[in-house]
Amino acid sequence: MQDLNGRVAVITGGASGIGRALAVRFAEEGMRLVLADVEQAALDATVGELAASGAEVTGVVTDVTSFASVEALAEDAYAAYGAVHVLCNNAGVGPPGGLVWETTPNDWVWTFGVNVFGVAHGIQAFVPRMLAGGEEGVVINTSSPDGPIAPMPQASVYAATKCAVTCVTECLAAQLEAESTTLRAAVFYPSGTGLLDTGLWSSDRNRPADLARERPRSTPAMTVAQLREQGVPVQPHGVGVAPNVMVGGAEVALCAATPRTGGRRPARCRALAGGGRARGRVRRATSRPCCAEYRIPVSR
Ligand SMILES: NC(=O)c1ccc[n+]([C@@H]2O[C@H](COP(=O)([O-])OP(=O)(O)OC[C@H]3O[C@@H](n4cnc5c(N)ncnc54)[C@H](O)[C@@H]3O)[C@@H](O)[C@H]2O)c1
Predict the structure, then answer these.
(1) Has 78 been annotated as catalytic?
(2) Atom of ligand 1 nearest to the CA of 39
(3) The whole model's pTM is what?
(4) DSSP state, 206?
(5) Is 55 left (phi over 0), alpha (psi -120 to 50) or beta?
(6) What digits encode the pLDDT tens for the residues 245-276?
(7) From 78, 81, 158, 294, the catalytic residue
(8) Which terminus of the chain is less hemmed in, N or C, by CB atoms within 10 Å?
(9) How far is the CA of 90 from the centre of ligand 1 (A)?
(10) Domains defined along the chain, listed by start
């Protein structure tokens, strides 16, 4: 899909960070937008700013951990625009890292609830409608290099969720192709040149009280400042960052060559880059070895 003008995009986690940047970029392409987010104030602010700049945009408070909530989002989106062409299952949380054996059951329930169930709910609610509409479209699921490509040891639970997102997206992509539809699926690896200083590092602001950690942390949470001290590049986030990974028709950023693969991109990246399978144009996000940047010393 190359011409985005007038098409409709739904972006979960659209109020902040990468989702917001996607919304800004899509609006520049003339897309009509439905932004979904659990954070009402941030959602209102982003929708207000986009509308003020002339975008056609609707905000829907949504909790992606709830299928009913995502189903209601789909109903609202179709009621407003009659079609959805680009679905970005982007909402995600990154709880403070730690030793795997010191994580708690609720760390797993909350993180998998948002990052994995949220993606599944988006697929379940939207894909049948998108298929029934019969129009060209793409489902873009936000993964992360942190997991399927090179897990940060500190971020065990988060990294596990992102492996699941990549895996289910590969299955979805293959199934859609097998159905001979014009709907496609793509995995999105943001931050091709390092981590981004978004709201991800303060995800606890959205953590439900009933899924709070069962016991206090024994060590402080991982912070951007701490990562920078360890030499991990965490880039300032701005509208200028996300568009480098997706512009004009679902281009999907992929990790560049990594030392781990002797200068070749990992097989998973190659598969997603095309290898004859992916239809969209794919941009090699960077010539820098981004995966290596995730390889940082284990610390608590
Ligand atoms: N920041 C990075 O370096 C980085 C790198 C790779 C991948 N990602 C991924 O990018 C995506 C966006 O994250 P970000 O970095 O922009 O963080 P962010 O916190 O700025 O944005 C995430 C958004 O998701 C929303 N959200 C959280 N829980 C939700 C829920 N239950 N239902 C609906 N919305 C919910 C938040 O309110 C927020 O607006 C995530 O999937 C994240 O895992 C981020």
Answers:
(1) no
(2) 37
(3) 0.85
(4) G
(5) beta
(6) 333 333 333 332 233 333 344 433 433 333 33
(7) 158
(8) C
(9) 6
(10) 8-210+220-298 (3.40.50.720)
